[in-house]
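so the lab meeting is tmrw and i was supposed to have these ready like two days ago... anyway. pasting both below. for each one the top line is the aa sequence and the line under it is the structure tokens. i havent really looked at them closely yet so no promises
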Amino acid sequence: MDFCNISIPIPFVLAVVATLGYLFGRRGRSGGEDPLHRSRRELRRAHAVATELERIAWQVRRSLARHHGSLSKFKNRVGKLNERQQEAAWKELCRDVEEILKPTLQLASQMASAYDEIRQQSANLMTFTEVRTDSLTGVNNRRGLDDALASQFAMMNRYKTLFSIAMIDIDHFKQINDREGHLYGDKMLQDLAKLVDESVRETDIVARYGGEEFVIVMPQTELLGACIFAERLRDQIAQGMDLTVSVGVAAASDGDTQQSLLARADSALYSAKTAGRNCTWRHDGDKTEAVVEEVVLRE
């Protein structure tokens, strides 16, 4: 097989999947915002995923082509050794094996890395499908959140990459429903989901955790950066909407599971509620504390 001529249509195929997933997913989504506006935003996300997959495929092709060249040279040398004396041929073969071993191990590492990156981008593609989309708000549902967290934990366990989450809860939402009605409450959920989804990075995942709670998954983000973003988002919501939110932030660490990470974020959120609502708290792994200017500057 000629590795130099290998064609890996991963970006093209998955980009098509993303587009089809988007088109079918749109059927089950709310009409709470301008369809054209959402279409443009989601197509930008799909394009970003396809671009990343194209980069991965290009690196795989280049690595395979380079290794194929090394293997061809190794094969030719082994063929010539058949004509040499056995002892001399054995010694030279050992040297040649040492030379080919290092690039072979490097290729194995690169392929494992590519697999994990493709898995992560596949999780991003899954966010376009209807079964992972909350029908009311158009963001991910609990299943989409579980897939996103599983992907992030796989990357963290293999490469020690950081990621954080923020859990958002609307303050006094029951009172809003009782006072204004459930249709108005649904509209508030849709508007909040839209604002949050437009505020995050293309690599971030927004999911409706349940009821009036949302979770943001932030890849390659340490706790401090997540706190700064969460507090800015909380203030933006308070300034731009007729409601406030409380936020709990936590960063994944060694030994964590999805449940333990969500539990820490929920504990921070509970502290924010207890402290009077409309504020951001974080869990640093040992305790919860308010995210205020003094805390951010201290670090």
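ok protien two:
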Amino acid sequence: MPAVAGPRVHRVSVITIAFLAAFVLGVLTLIAADVFYRRPGVMLDAVLTALRSPEIRYAIRLSLITSGITLFLVVCVSVPIGYALSRYRFPGSVVLDAIVDLPIVLPPVVVGVSLLVFFRTAVGQGIESVPWLRFVYEPKGIVLCQFVMSASYGIRASKAAFDGVDRRLEALALTLGCTHGQAFRWVALPMARGGLAAGAVMAWARAVGIFGPLMVFTGAVRMKTEVMPTTVYLELSIGQVEPALAVSMLMLAIAMVALVLIHALGQAHRWWGT
């Protein structure tokens, strides 16, 4: 890529970098406020005490289990849907694109209300009548909320990953005797792996952090439907700032690790040339 002509330091660069610095400083200030809410030793004791609590340990375990199941479901759904949106054009595709993105822009609490209303319809009540398919105020409902809120991120990332794969390579595989399934499995899928993995991590991080739909659809029942975001709410509601902050810092660490993975996978995606 040719170098941009002109001096490196100019009015536009100074203004834009100043905005960047101000935003980064604001984010770091919020993180520092969490970390230094108490003296480091006191804060560490509070974190360790919180992690020894049976309720909080249950919430962490349930968050990891439900988000892991959600991740598996999102991957199974987002890869074929992303490929279809990337490769095929049909009437109404613009509308379908918008519907796929709808959960991203909807207020999260609306998703919870919509799920609750659905399970009060005849179809929803029929599903709830099956003991092992009950979702409302049940741990399985957590997975459902997480899936609805995070699937769009996985689908959008999958579409972008397949958009970056040269279609001519798939066409070449077809001319060499591959079926469409083999071209997908041996050409498109391996070349999109970096973007697909980044999308999966993004969807998982989103699933771990949802709050609004859970409060409406599954509630926040101790040792039953309590996950990390609802633990923060429950602890704050009884004035326990330190345990809430401890769980918040754990979620912050998870989010940071997820973002590092996403950016690392994005760089690998470019290095592989996919």
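from a quick look at the 2nd one: The mean pLDDT is 85. The two ends are 18 Å apart (CA to CA). will dig more after coffe
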